[in-house]
Amino acid sequence: MTEGGTRHTPAPTGQGFGRFLVAIYGIFALAATSRSAVQLATEFDKAPLAYLLSAFAAVVYIVATVSLARGDATSRRLATVAISIELVGVLIVGALSVLSPGVFQHPTVWTGFGSGYGFVPLVLPFVGLWWLRHTR
Amino acid sequence: MTGTYATLITVVALLFAAWALISAASNRRPTLLLFGAGVLLEALLLGFAVGGIVQMAGSDRQFARAEFVGYLLGCLAIPPLAFYWARGERSRSGTLVIALGFLIMPVMVLRVQQVWAGSVG
């Protein structure tokens, strides 16, 4: 966010298009966090695996949001890790939920490749990784 | 939950979102007028939150009260966060961020109403 534009430092990830991307990540961080907080607090026994997964996804989105917004060298690495986990998560959970719907019982943000959220959770990690490469 | 007021917020938020999107499409950065729109929406949301909490206190119905208050406070937090994050951005992205903030408001209001009605587990 405060990084200067000298020749050898990478472009900040939280400016230009990144400003918009961080906002999208922020919305998912907020949505996933509030959803999982309610689920874990009130009905954890009903579907523990799904709700733990929701909470995990929430943490991943929070880390991605904050690190993309900060955009220094360490944050950039952290963002790459978080977004990679996000990509693997949405692919594995998406595939599992389609192949054997019984596993998670209750929907999470990654169920059906994010179909409950207009497939944005599937597209987002690709855009995030592209953006990290693009600004390198 | 007061239906007319919630509808008013939804309509106003969507109008502001359309305005911000058009503004972003024509490459404009956020204007002071758009900021004024955000302040107006925030005032409406404040009325929504206060009204909602007063109604909740006066009701002995069973519903997820903590979640209800959480979503009302979430509504209130969104416009300031959007304008905070959009500040200082030199491209149209700042305007887009504000448009996003307006765009998710109808969803938030819907969630508030769903929790109030107790239809969400």
Mind sketching the topology for me?
The complex is a heterodimer of chains A (about 140) and B (about 120).
Chain A: H1 17-43, H2 48-70, H3 73-99, H4 120-134
Helix pairs in contact in A: 1-2, 1-4, 2-3, 3-4
Chain B: H1 3-25, H2 32-57, H3 65-86, H4 93-103, H5 105-117
Structure, explained:
Chain A is elongated, with a radius of gyration of 16 Å. Chain A is mainly alpha-helical. Chain A has 4 helices and no strands. The mean pLDDT of chain A is 88. With 121 residues, chain B is mainly α. Chain B has 5 helices and no strands. In chain B, α1 packs antiparallel against α4, α1 packs antiparallel against α5 and α3 runs antiparallel to α5. Chain B is elongated. The two termini of chain B are 18 Å apart. The mean pLDDT of chain B is 92. Chains A and B meet through α1 of A and α3 and α4 of B.
Major beta-sheet overview of chain A: none
What percentage of residues of chain B falls in helices of 4 or more residues? over 70%
Chain-averaged pLDDT of chain B: 92
Sheet with the most strands, sense and barrel status of chain B: none
What percent of residues of chain B are in strands? Answer: under 5%
Could you state the order of secondary-structure elements of chain A as H and E? HHHH
Q: What is the chains' assembly state?
A: heterodimer
Q: In percent terms, what proportion of residues of chain A is strand?
A: under 5%
Summarize the largest interface: chains and residue counts: A-B, 19 and 21 residues
Distance between the termini of chain B: 18 Å
Count helical runs of chain A: 4
Task: Provide the residue-averaged pLDDT of chain A.
Answer: 88
